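Good day; I would like, with your permission, to put a structural problem before you. A protein sequence and the structure tokens that stand for its backbone fold form the material at issue. I would ask you to consider whether the tokens describe a fold that such a sequence might reasonably adopt. I set the record out below, with my sincere thanks for your time.
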Amino acid sequence: MAKERYEEAAAAGDAKAMTSLGYLYDVGQGVPQDYQKAREWYEKAAAAGNATAMNNLAFLYYQGRGVPQDYQTAMEWSEKAAAAGSALAMFRLGALYYEGQGVPQDYPKAKEWYEKAATAGNAMAMTSLAFLYYQGHGVPQDYPKAKEWYGKAAAAGNTMAMTNLGYMYSRGQGVPQDNVKARQWYQKAAAAGNREAIVNLASLPTPKVKECHRARRTHCSRTASSSHKATAHLRHRHRHPVQIASR
């Protein structure tokens, strides 16, 4: 069984195995769920320098799983993981500064950490940077810059970025207004399971024949709807991702 293999490797000092053991207890995979044991194994792995374990400890404290919720301790573990090169931790630090959790709210600091995480390839950090520029939080409002970062995040597979690109095209923010492109981005995000994209799709008017030709679609209505079925929204949420067993 996985637990026995991990225990054997952990006894030999394998930090990844320690992290994986912590994860098994964290999610109750093959063992009864036990946050206390999860934390103990994560702490052992973190002491051995494992950045994933540091991230997982940060998540336990952020969520208050088996420990009192403590944003400050979550930040401390995130800082250690970021120092070890974790892009996920860099993103979480940006989110903590953005929300003012464990620290005073500080948009420039949030931007700094988002940029570091984005440079390291974290798509959620790219989306968060885009949102800063979209809203003008800590930076001058800049729709073209927001669109640029949403584009990078979308290329990395982030469905929130795809949805928000659709929204910007539907409103003509930083780009020429274009319902065809808006629909294409919403459909791409919806196909990947983004519920907000599905809602936003319903807000678009029914495509005209000309737009159907441009989009190369065969099942379009021949008349444009005069009213929207729903109201579209640009969305942004800071997500603190779940744990990863090992890397």
User: Anything to note?
Assistant: Residues 209 and 222 are 5 Å apart (CA to CA). The first helix runs from residue 2 to 11.
